[in-house]
Design brief:
Elements (H helix, E strand, L loop, with lengths): L5 H22 L6 H24 L3 H18 L4 H27 L5 H6 L2 H17 L2 H4 L9 H18 L2 H7 L2 H26 L6 H14 L2 H21 L20
Length: 272
């Protein structure tokens, strides 16, 4: 068995894990939970690190192309394959393949094996390619597309408005009125009034934004992309960390070794 087959298999497994976490995170985000962010970060680092490591050990452009194409195929399988996903998927393929050529150029120039030195040049484009696919996945999520059909206000915002109104009334009320405000009957009436006001506001917003609602998913996706790129430093660090971890594991298993080789170099000399 060709040991190089191990790398595409690892990339396939990590990409399945990564896209599974992305799918669940977008459909059911739980932004207040620390474990939510830990899962997102670990799955991203595991996937990007395995892919970068696979490109590093690819001894030909065909193996590199296979490693790059696998997560894109998984992405196409999980989304509705259309012109946008097809074109941008191929664009990401070219970006990642360009990163592979950069890695190989760095390997030829360096005298010592260093994951950081091999991978850090061009890594921003590599990470941007992954973020583009994640943003596309977000764009085609049913909950995001639903934004183009109706405008909704989160229940948490209604609760905040009710609590804010209550606290404002309490600060300016006399002791007798303050006691009345805190009764369950008053709170129920206030909640109903907030709901009526919210519905009227939504009706007016829906009427005003009618012609522009079709652009809401695009605007949300652009905001999503910019948010992810703001954490590029973290994605870069996780990629290098997990790539280094894969190198350590492969060395311990005897799958890779570091050889000492002689390299010829040219020298420019002034002729006497």
């Amino acid at each position: 068995m060709n040991k190089r087959v191990i790398l595409p298999i690892i990339v396939l497994v990590t990409s399945l894990i990564f896209w599974g976490v992305v799918q669940r995170s977008i459909q059911s985000p739980n932004l207040k939970e620390v474990i939510f962010w830990v899962k997102v970060a670990l799955s991203f680092g595991l996937f990007s690190g395995s892919l970068a490591f696979g490109l590093l050990l690819s001894n030909s452009k065909y193996w590199a192309a296979l490693n790059i194409f696998i997560p894109i195929l998984v992405f196409w399988f999980l989304t509705n394959l259309g012109l946008i996903t097809l074109v941008l998927g191929l664009l990401v393929f070219l970006i990642q393949f360009s990163y592979y050529t950069t890695i190989k150029s760095e390997q030829e120039q360096r005298l010592k094996v260093s994951i950081k030195k091999f991978l850090e040049k061009g890594i921003y484009g590599f990470i941007a390619g992954i973020i583009i696919l994640v943003t596309l996945f977000y764009y085609f999520t049913p909950s995001v597309q639903e934004k183009s059909r109706q405008i909704t206000i989160p229940k948490s915002l209604e609760t905040f408005v009710q609590e804010f109104t209550t606290q404002t009334l309490l600060r300016n009320a006399s002791p007798e009125v303050r006691a009345q405000i805190q009764t369950p009957e008053f709170q129920t009436q206030l909640g109903q009034e907030v709901q009526r006001t919210t519905k009227e506001l939504l009706r007016q917003l829906d009427s005003w934004a009618g012609p522009y609602k079709k652009f809401f998913p695009l605007v949300l996706s652009i905001g999503f992309y910019l948010t992810l790129t703001a954490f590029t430093f973290l994605w870069n660090w996780l990629t290098l960390l997990f790539a280094s971890l894969f190198l350590f594991i492969f060395k311990q298993l005897g799958l890779v070794k570091i050889n000492s080789v002689q390299k010829e170099a040219e020298e420019l000399e002034l002729v006497n």
